[in-house]
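--- STAGE predict ---
source: upstream dedup step, 1 unique chain passed
mode: sequence only
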Amino acid sequence: MADWTIKKPLGECSGTGRAIEPREEYFGALVEGEEGLERRDFTVEFWEKEKPEVFCFWRSRLADPEEKKELFVSDEMLMAFFERLANETDPEKLNFRFVLALVLMRKRRLKYDSTKIKDGVEVWSLRVVGQKEMVEVVDPHLDDEQIELLTSQIGQILQADM
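--- STAGE serialize ---
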């Protein structure tokens, strides 16, 4: 498995280098970097003017260091990330999507239905809870350490406790 790390927000706009002030709204995004997905943050002004090309994004507010941290990532946002990765074939993104599926199963947004072998690859069929829709996810057969590492990295990306 490729080892990749996602930097925590640095409190500065990746487009301009301007500091993002505490309590200021900004856009967090995942972009394709030379070594895979990388997190970048942008001020609202830069985002609206330049509309940078990103893999996916979310709007957030930079925490005040004096405030108690309350982090919340909606299940809808996690589902959107999961769906966005549906047609990816890159092993790193397949691993990322698989761990997102595990998180969504734990949150009871996806329910395991069955397993089948497609072209020598194990594929899980999952039901989107509350819908008839079925989705598939490749099981990359990650070990516990790899799952823990990816879960931690997802939490860093989204600034959340997974």
